[in-house]
């Protein structure tokens, strides 16, 4: 039931640039400088190996580096997905990505010894991990973490995690920092707004509403959120609240919906009237 739009979007997001050689590594870095001397660096590792005529494996990973952030607790929160990060420099992150890549390849090599000779057709497995800077507004840093993988089966899997960091107070932003709305009322708003940003799933009758593919009776208000000057957005990965065919779902909740519940500090900083 996986629709064409979702397939194309997933393919575009998780495109690998590694060459199809038995052992090839390409490491690139780039730097962007933002206002107020805030700098962002990045390290990316792409590699591929071919175990035999039936199985090729690709690995891609990208991590951001923040030379201007010195607070260790904040850095630990930013790199929450990998507890092995001890050196937050570009060289340290590069060494970590190389280590993770080698462990991934070696793990599949070891595990495949018992079954790889039984593979009946050629397959290309992959692992893709990424960090992307989405915005830095009013010292609120929004980072999107994405992952995708395929290791056999009917289809690949992918997901996202959204995190916003308060650079003024060196902390991850939590919902209570934004709104004091009761949980049940926020969940009611999420259900009300579930179809405002459909994922693009279609059938022979046309577009399918997100609500038609819900797997839950109550949409949870998770910590997987971000915001801009108009809305608070909750992002759900496939299978989290809907069938895989729906893709990943984003539900907006406007500041008007949250009127009277926003914290004074957040309203002032985001200039919400």
TrEMBL record:
<protein>
    <submittedName>
        <fullName>RsiV family protein</fullName>
    </submittedName>
</protein>
<dbReference type="InterPro" id="IPR021729">
    <property type="entry name" value="DUF3298"/>
</dbReference>
<feature type="signal peptide">
    <location>
        <begin position="1"/>
        <end position="20"/>
    </location>
</feature>
<feature type="domain" description="DUF3298">
    <location>
        <begin position="183"/>
        <end position="255"/>
    </location>
</feature>
<keyword id="KW-0732">Signal</keyword>
<dbReference type="Pfam" id="PF11738">
    <property type="entry name" value="DUF3298"/>
</dbReference>
<dbReference type="InterPro" id="IPR037126">
    <property type="entry name" value="PdaC/RsiV-like_sf"/>
</dbReference>
